[in-house]
Automatic annotation (TrEMBL):
Signal peptide feature range: none
One GO term of the biological process aspect: protein ubiquitination
Lineage: Eukaryota, Viridiplantae, Streptophyta, Embryophyta, Tracheophyta
Keyword Transferase recorded: no
Keywords, sorted A to Z: Ubl conjugation pathway
Associated pathway: Protein modification; protein ubiquitination
Listed SMART domains: Skp1
Organism of derivation: Penstemon smallii
Positions of the SKP1 component POZ domain: 26-86
Domain SKP1 component dimerisation: 124-171
Stored Pfam families: Skp1, Skp1_POZ
Keyword DNA damage assigned: no
Superkingdom of the source species: Eukaryota
Official protein name in the record: SKP1-like protein
Assembly information from the UniProt record: Part of a SCF (SKP1-cullin-F-box) protein ligase complex.
Length: 179
């Protein structure tokens, strides 16, 4: 169970309540591995997917919103990100510091899972952050290395690849040949 505590909530599902913490109802989310999480509506507000499900009545009367494509570990990371962003909404510099350190100890696979979750939940800020983290990770890596990282087969002939490298020589100028 997540660190968020459940309290009785009003029966209304209007998203306008997010501005009033006293009326901030809890939403129940269920991860793909059946873990239940209670989260304030104002915290999950950046998820367009969840907002649409709430607006469609899927969270009325204590309804559980199933997240088929998000496991517990990834959901907890998403909720942590959203909770900190909700707390620091007026602290631009603190959010930047948090974002910079948010994925510091995450594996490449965990970062990819967060990209998929942010895309599925339609959380633009998190998706942009995670995409940038992956872009920074592969920056200046050789083509062969990037193929290996993403498990991409080389379907070019030697001649085709040489032609592409010649046409786009500028793109290979800052490649780290030592990695």
């Amino acid at each position: 169970m997540s660190s968020f505590q459940a309290k009785p909530s009003s029966s209304t599902s209007s998203f306008e309540l997010e501005k009033n913490p006293e009326l901030d109802i809890k939403i129940v989310l269920k991860s793909s591995d059946n873990s239940i999480h209670f989260v304030k509506k104002s915290v999950i507000a950046k998820s367009v997917t969840i907002k649409n499900l709430i607006d469609d009545g899927c969270a009325d009367n204590g309804g559980i919103i199933p997240l088929q494509n998000v496991n517990k570990s990834t959901l907890l990371s998403v909720l942590h990100y959203l909770n900190i962003h909700a707390e620091l909404s007026d602290e631009g510099s603190e959010i930047k510091v948090f974002d910079e350190n948010f994925t510091k100890d995450f594996s490449f696979e965990k970062k990819c899972d967060l990209i998929l979750a942010a895309n599925y939940l339609d959380i633009k800020e998190l998706l942009d952050l995670m995409n940038q983290k992956i872009a920074d990770f592969i920056k200046n890596k050789q083509v062969e290395e990037v193929r290996k990282i993403f498990n991409i087969a080389n379907d070019f002939t030697v001649e085709e690849e040489a032609a592409i490298r010649n046409e786009n020589a500028w793109a290979f100028e800052d490649i780290n040949k030592d990695t």
